[in-house]
Write a structure and sequence with these properties.
Layout: H1 2-8, E1 21-29, E2 32-39, H2 46-52, H3 63-85
Antiparallel strand pairs: 1-2
Length: about 90
Amino acid sequence: MMWKYLRASSETWTGATGRTLFSDGPKQDGNYIFLDIGADTQKDPAGFYKEFGTPRQAAEPFLRPTLQYYRRRGLKDYMKYILETFGLPTP
């Protein structure tokens, strides 16, 4: 989903921000099941500038729309996937 929003927000595609994207998980820590998604700004700050903008460049968010999508629509499907991954019963 991040890729979809990232590609839609760019007029020109260089791939610099795309190379910093990561998705890792699902993982379990005690009773918590979680996943990590984001852009590694240590490699290249392009993702940060694209998401929040600069004084000369308007923001072109791609992470926030992805999180909004998962909160609104994709959460049930992804929770089912996570529960199945860990062998837990699904409702």
